[in-house]
Amino acid sequence: MYGPPSCVASKLGARFVHRPPAKMLVLAAALLFTFAAAQAPVADAPNAPTSAELQAFFESELPPLIQEHRVPGVAVSVVVGGEVRHAEGYGFARLAPDVPATAHTPFQTGSVSKMLTFTALMQQVELGAIYLNADVNLYLQEFTVQERFGAAITPLHLLTHTAGFEDLPVVGLLARDEAALLPLGELLTRHLPDRVRPPGEEAAYSNYGAALAGYLVELATGEPFADAVQSRVLTPLGMTDSSIQQPVAADLAGRTARGYLYEDGEYRWPGPEYVPLGPAGGLHMSASDAARFMLLHLGETPGVLATETAEAMRAPLHQARSDMPGMGAGWWQSDRHGQRILTHEGDTNEAHALMALMPEVGEGLFLATNAPGGQTLRAVLWEKYLDRFHAVADPVAVPGVDLRQYEGTYLLNRYSTSTIGKLGRLLGFVNVSATQAGLELPPLLGPDPMLLVPQGNDVFVDLDTNLTVFFTRGDDGAVATFHPNPSLAFHRAAAVEHPVLHLVALGGSLLLSVVALVVLLFRRPARARRAHWFIAATAAGPALSVAALLTLVGDPFSVVFGVTPGLLVTLTLVNLAAVLAVGGVVVLARAWRGAVWPKELPGSSYAGAPRGAGVRSRDGALEPAGLSPLRFRQVRGRSAAYAYLDHEVLRLGRLAHQQRAL
After folding, report:
1. Closest by alpha carbon to 465, among 449, 487, 486?
2. How far apart are CA 298 and CA 626, in angstroms?
3. Residue pair 200/157 in contact by the 8 Å Cβ criterion
4. Which of 172, 235, 351, 508 is deepest in the core (most CB within 10 A)?
């Protein structure tokens, strides 16, 4: 569902796609700014945090968090009422030798980069070079997005993560080697994902979609994306400590914060961390520059964007429910601590960042870290900040809500459908259980479990974070989808989709293959040896694949940097096991039907001899099988009658042998 600004985009798309740029600018601006449902920033709010309060807060809270979560350095900035109230670095940007983090240290920001990309895109919309409701294929040159669902993907869909792309696999999402930094058009052509749902239907966070938005900027300006952003956004804003170029521009390379891993009691720098899809995550930005960027989006420093455009970007462009927070132009709306907050987080392997705006009070916060522990530090510090400066009472449960209707397993709608990454869906689920206090969920958006307090009308508030979340229902009126964040959704799992069912099936198959392998190793037939060993190899395939996965892949997060040798061996074994499984079924069927490998009867001496061959008596003597019409291969050993028949065959064979000897 779209909010009011989507109607604006629709009018832009229908009327001005072929207009000259000058007219497009005037008319598009008039429509966009007239209908955008957004609130103007507030100069200052009562009880707004002062510089002294902010300094005291961060100096008190950050040092123990840095120590606890093993994060070398943190950078923070806060803007209030159109001014920078606080910008500071804590800890170290680099170690050995130690380089202190400052407000001017460029930190890697991960997906916060998307807000810079979407800002550049909206700038081109203002100029009439890009049109929100046009088919993206009108702009693309090196490739085209496939036609599906009878609807085109537009720049508006890219801004709201509603294009309907499958998710890209995590393998190769990051890189250590500059060689992975190919031209943007080439990367997008290579990794073009499938379209799995109609555009505009629902939001599912997409790195590819954000990178495609950046590519549209590149095509519209005729410059490489990083250069276009530098000259049109960063430089005009005075963001001299920031760059989305990879590797970082030479004048910044010597003072960027490095990302560290904490291993065996010490920090280790694993090397540079690149994001091949640069528009989706390649930005280095200082706390001081982030303050300038936040002031732009709070409407305090127009120029790069008109104030009205910044307001329109904050408005809900896509909503799962019209009365609930939705997706702005990149911004995630949320209701929390009495505020409509707009946020965007950024995560790489070693860097974790947050940008949050509170337009109603003219306030913004930026936070960046340089170690994996920064992810938890970010969540804890953000909650402490809201508790300190925007405190609210705990939510009170609305009585009479039947919580049992919400119980169940919900599957994340962000997953791959065409790659091995689809296995990740087995882990992308959340279990919701009802208690007397509310709905209990495992840690989902932070380090702590969630306890959702009912507010009625399928709306809940998390007791710990005061975050409002909600459910939506299907056409039959039953609870169908859980919405903890406007950029994604969790759909209730049907019985055949339940991850536990698939995990149990996988575990059972693995156990069966191990048991079969053991039996085949210790019970080898006298004949059909090739078939026997082929089936044994088939049984060994799954076990060896799992063993390789557990022992060779190593740190599972390492695969985000590409296919490791251990992963390559594992994938090779998996593919080989699949081929052997198909071949094993064929070999086993032929051996069974051809009587070269029938089952051995309990207590019997039959050893799998084909028609016309000899059989061994109980004393071990080889005797002729002169009774071929009995077709020994039909013996299956499933009843006492077959066992008796087998015994009689051997007795008659022995008698015939004795008569011939006389």
Report:
1. 449
2. 97
3. yes
4. 351
